[in-house]
Specification:
The complex is a heterodimer of chains A (434) and B (91). Chain A folds into three domains: 212 residues, FAD/NAD(P)-binding domain (3-Layer(bba) Sandwich), CATH 3.50.50; 104 residues, D-Amino Acid Oxidase, Chain A, domain 2 (2-Layer Sandwich); 53 residues. In chain A, 36% of the residues lie in helices and 25% in strands. In chain A, strands 3, 4, 5, 6, 11, 12, 13, 14 and 15 form a nine-stranded mixed sheet that branches. In chain A, strands 1, 2, 7, 8, 9, 10, 16 and 17 form an eight-stranded mixed sheet that branches. In chain A, helix 9 runs antiparallel to helix 11 and helix 13 packs antiparallel against helix 16. Chain B is of the alpha+beta class and 91 residues long. In chain B, the strands form three sheets. A two-stranded antiparallel ribbon of chain B has the order 1-6. In chain B, strands 2-5 form a two-stranded antiparallel sheet. The chains are: A alpha/beta (434), B alpha+beta (91). The interface between A and B is large, with 52 and 38 residues.
Amino acid sequence: MEEKFDVAIVGAGPAGISAACVLADRGAKVIVVERGEYPGSKNMFGGVLYGQSLGRVIPDYAQKSCPIERNIVESRISYLSEEGSIGFAYRDQAFFGKLHNNAFTVGRAKFDRWFAEQARAKGALVVCSTVVTDLLRDGAGRVIGVKTDRADGELHAKVVLLADGINSPLAVKSGFRPEARPESVALAVKELIELPEEVIDERFGVSAGNGVTIEILGSVTLGMNGVAFVYTNRRSISLGIGANLCDFAKQRVRPYEMIERLKLHPAISPLIKGGKPREYLAHWLPEGGWESVPKLFHDGLLIAGDSAMLFNALHREGSNLAMTSGRLAAETILHALEKGDFTSRTLKGYAARMEESFVLKDLKKYRRFPSFLKTHGELFTTLPRGALEALREILTVDDTPKETRRKSAWRAIRGRLTPLGLLRLLFDAWRSIR
Amino acid sequence: MTVEDKLFLDRFNVDEDSHLRLIDPDTCIEKCREQPCLYICPANVYKLEKDRISVNYEGCLECGSCRIGCPHFNIDWRFPRGGYGVRHKFG
């Protein structure tokens, strides 16, 4: 392939395809290189996409038969101890109406393929089954294209956009991002559990393509800093659990055993009962936050999405950050194409756009959140047990006077956490999200 | 449900050559006390045999954990060739 492109994009995920759509829309000559057999064949996430971010790229996505699984109308948070759960649920009529598709579930094998088709329809070239093995540079060190694992696989481009995801040996090899450290990634495993649509509707109290997300915290991660989730798809449930990779190594916990234990939990097993496992996947989540975001622009190169470690751990948002960063990278590249300058001087406009957007504003605001979780192990061990026991005291009905019950409830907490420890937890929590 | 049962649900296009290689197999046995690869790999690719660690790359889910989790950086980790490896049905 001796052809020269305006832009070569590595990776056909939400970041790369968003960029491809915006660029192709404006007539730029774009190639997307994907290592999987089809877009999405290597991709995995929890399962939630955000309508507004997608709408900024494909405004009429709903009319273009975007493969949406369920529109999320209810978000739950469950705090699990070994024996029970404490929960919070928020359902709002707005999500049936004007905020319809604010968040929705998708399967990446279908969605990414559909998304890449939209980019193709706009004129982008999407090449699959091709691994980018290195970046091409000129004498001055400027990136001028990519090298692939195909015969004669050099592709020249004015700008390269790295959107190849968090596990990026390429970013490391080319020196544009340090290798991910075990403490700044979470390893998550997910199982797809098939159930009839009506059963899911009934179990979660929804109908007509609406669904529920449950974010799970507590002792299910066996004392490790991690989370679990249950997301409803049309005819399946995504059940996942993840924890800091460093913690897995330290505690010698096997991810597949942890998800098996989660399935047996009294709050989870009724939700998946009778379901048939259909797929088992694993992936990293960038959990380093603001501190781990690399420099986003270089001569001839931009970095977007997970590859740039863009993930808001507090809100479990990632796909929207990927799409927005891809779109902003594309806008910067369009500007560079207009000026005919592909050096950092023009491409640094990407960093400015990112700083003005919610992407970096949110990551900066919550920059202390990753270390909050890391330094408060009690969130995953003693606190869920204490909280459950305290509630059990309060809600047990017998001849015991309430005064005695109240005291034992307080003891259940205090026996595990000193008043000072509790105060520090609350203060650090407030500080990490303030 | 065992990890083998789980991997059986997935589709793989297995290449003849492994994309994972122990750079110095002796290091794993002689120098590595923790052997975290035996625990952290979600696909149980690494197994402790009598005098070595075997690499069952066929079921690799391509997460990268072994590469950065190996305390001796003893794993040469590449993506499978284009089109090979795991193929998500749902994702």
